[in-house]
Design brief:
By secondary structure, the chain is of the alpha/beta class. The chain has three helices and three strands. The protein has helices at about 10-15, 35-40, 55-65, and strands at about 25, 45-50, 70-75. A three-stranded parallel sheet has the order 1-2-3, covered by helices on one side.
């Protein structure tokens, strides 16, 4: 698999995550670059919902984040 490098990772997540607690939505889950960074900033009470329409991306993220209870992954187009 080709390695994906998230674009504007720090700037994007700095703008989005203002508190370590909350409910967040990642409408372009992709291969989880932004998702991993968002999760690293959230506490155990938070929830992150991620969606993508690409079956390979969903499969990759379900495996990569299989132990992550704060993340809910759905196949959907934003």
């Amino acid at each position: 698999m080709k390695k994906h490098i998230p674009v504007l990772l720090k700037d994007t997540v700095d703008y989005l995550v203002k508190s370590g607690t909350g409910k967040y939505f990642d409408a372009t889950l992709g291969f989880g670059g932004h998702t991993a960074e968002i999760l690293s900033r959230l506490d155990s009470r938070s929830v992150l919902v991620g969606t993508d329409k690409d079956d390979d991306a969903i499969k990759h993220c379900r495996e990569s984040f299989k132990d992550e209870s704060r993340l809910k992954i759905y196949k959907a187009a934003f």
